């Protein structure tokens, strides 16, 4: 497989397949998504269509029934447009797919869309869908949302059923939406979770505080991203919110965690029963990552999981009523030509995933809001503890309005 194929951006590669016109299975008492078009990432089961997960090795994997999230969307009146393109098996934050092509970034010519929910973000940014259904293992909703100038929401994992969704890492995967606005994301999440209050809120008498980590998330950051992020912070402070930059041991401990264990071990365990994980038909960059799972024995993986649990406990205990505030991605959307060499691909992939993966490991909820400069947007990322989804969405809607009014 030659990687020069991945330099070819093709705007027609947003959808892997369109769905046939459908009669909605909506519940007449709950049609909140009536007439809204929803695109579906290619790792969700839709009855009668192949769930290919962006790989040719699952091209004949026809779903026998709808995924749970699909059922809920249909019951709420959504019109499903089609399966969108994605990184093969969701194993990258960049969105490249050498088998089906890669949709070009709709804002920056010659740039990648971000991934792994690449087609989903582009479908919303270009108006081909109102909402995109996707997954987020280490930022796969929020990264492409940031690069494409839309909103991506990673809910608390347990709030949306993963039944009928093919995983990358069962421990880190979350199912969520991409939309043009926070309201669109919130509406889709409420439908999929079948509740506006799926988990209890933690109450605190402490004033809400935005926390910017001084010891995480800003190394190797593009100067243009720093400039726009600083503008956003100034706007947040001017609106009366408390913002504090601080160093916390949680972030130092997080940096010591071998996060790659989760996807490498769990993807290998899952997919080896479905196809040959050493197949030459896999993208070599995906195959090499799956193969790394054999390096980790059960004892070492259990140690990694225990270390993660400790981080989750610390985050839940010490960050109640706090919002971790960072750029969603530390760089602008890379150009296709920047990713030809494996070393560059690996470095940029890790940089793109660095900030977003934090929320998955900490089992939190997180949202990326677009913040526009003159030429391109960045993502402003808000992250809170598990179960704080409603509060996070409320805060995000406040900031969305503040950002929209900044030049008025």
UniProtKB/TrEMBL annotation:
Any coiled-coil regions, as ranges? none
> Which parts of the sequence belong to the Amidase domain?
30-393
One Pfam family named in its UniProt record = Amidase
The record, for InterPro entries, names:
Amidase, Amidase_dom, AS_sf
Instruction: Output the superkingdom of the source species.
Output: Bacteria
- Annotated membrane-spanning segments are none
PANTHER family per record: AMIDASE AMID-RELATED (PTHR11895:SF176), TRANSAMIDASE (PTHR11895)
Q: What is the name attached to this protein's record?
A: Asp-tRNAAsn/Glu-tRNAGln amidotransferase A subunit and related amidases
Q: Organism, per UniProt?
A: Vibrio variabilis
Q: What is the lineage of its organism?
A: Bacteria, Pseudomonadati, Pseudomonadota, Gammaproteobacteria, Vibrionales
